Amino acid sequence: MGFGLILLLILYIIWDFNYFIRCVFTVALGRLFQQKRKINETTTIYGLCTTQDVDIFIRHMNNARYVRELDFARFHFYALTGLYEGVRKNGGGAVQGASSVRYRKTIPIFNPYKIETKLIWWDEKAIYLEQKFITFDGFVRAIAMSKQNITNCNVVQLMNGFQGGEKIPDPPQELQLWLNAIEVSSEKLRKDKKSK
Predict the structure, then answer these.
(1) What is the CA radius of gyration of the chain?
(2) 3-state class of 108 per DSSP?
(3) Does residue 195 form part of some domain?
(4) pLDDT of residue 196 exceeding 80
């Protein structure tokens, strides 16, 4: 009995169990209690800034927690739209390729918020999500864009199988500018590699 408890404590310290429990909880709740969403619809999860989320001054959510919360919202989006199931059926996978977060105003400790996730564009290799942290006063506290690389799968063909995914929308201006910046960075890194 004592050994089992110690083993569980060691595993809890070594592995971030809260992360895995939250992933399962978020996806399961979405599947059990929320309606499926079309690929072009917005999904929403809710959160609360707790003592585990705050920065060193114990006043508001720290920057790393925003990115972590985006993971949960992304998994929720995949589950409610059926997108991840479609990717897996095609023998593919999904991996974060890039992300950009703009922090506008802090989320104070013990403040509730929601994260809205929306698919804003896709190409043959990736999908692009916009995610917003919104407090209950309606203020967008932070906004993120992420590039989800879809491996071993043609995304355009995949999306044709989803209602709302038949036509690629025009990319928003801020996304296009961000993609241009990513390409400039990639080109610089390629040049740096060649010069070594």
Answers:
(1) 19
(2) strand
(3) no
(4) no
pLDDT > 70 in the chain, percent: 99
- Please check whether residue 151 is in contact with residue 88, taking contact to mean a CB–CB distance below 8 angstroms: no
Confidence of residue 16 (pLDDT cuts 50, 70, 90): confident
Q: Are 91 and 153 in contact (CB under 8 A)?
A: yes
Total domain count for the chain?
1
CATH number at residue 95: 3.10.129.10
d(CA 144, CA 139) in angstroms, rounded, equals 15
Q: pTM of this prediction?
A: 0.90
The residue segments making up the domain with residue 103 are 18-186
In a domain, 10, yes or no: no
Other C-beta atoms lying within 10 Å of the C-beta of residue 97: 15
Q: Name the strands in the sheet holding 126-135, side by side, starting at the edge strand that comes first in the sequence.
A: 43-48, 112-122, 126-135, 140-151, 93-103
In this predicted structure, the answer to whether residue 1 has a pLDDT above a threshold of 70 is: no
Q: Classify residue 128: in a domain, yes or no.
A: yes
Decide if 104 is inside a domain: yes
What does the alpha-carbon distance between residue 67 and residue 71 come to, in Å, rounded to a whole number?
7
* String of DSSP letters for 48-66: E--TTTB-TTSSBB-HHHH
Average pLDDT, the chain: 93
